[in-house]
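Researcher: Go.
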Amino acid sequence: MVSRWGRAVSRWGRAVSRWGRAVSRWGRAVGRSSGVDRATAERGAGTVFVLGAFALVLLAATAAVLVGQAATVRHRAGAAADLAALAAARAGADNVPVPCRAARVVAVRNSARVTTCSVDRHGDARVAVTVDGAGLGRLTLHAKGSARAAPMR
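Model: Structure:
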């Protein structure tokens, strides 16, 4: 059928294309005969979702590893500072001429370097150390630790 304006229409008065499919006022396909199936339109959406979820899990795992490594380096710095302070205090109590040398030796054995060391006349030692730890790739983690130790009186 043809409308009075020369357009093809169905028997119910809706505009249709040359092939009998329903079309809108502007000639675009409408309804179920649009030619695009919903399953086809969303094809691959699951893959994108899974890739995004995988990226988030990978990011969270990387962050957890970095936090764990930072905590390990911080604990190593604290332990190295404690041991170096104890060595310096012991050397100070034994009247060694340079007690901070003992602290440096102990710090080097614990993969640390002494940044400050002082021993007063009573043998109380204050030591600060720095430890460098490996991170991910080129990332290097730095941690500082300080401790104070005194000989038993």
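Model: The mean pLDDT is 81.
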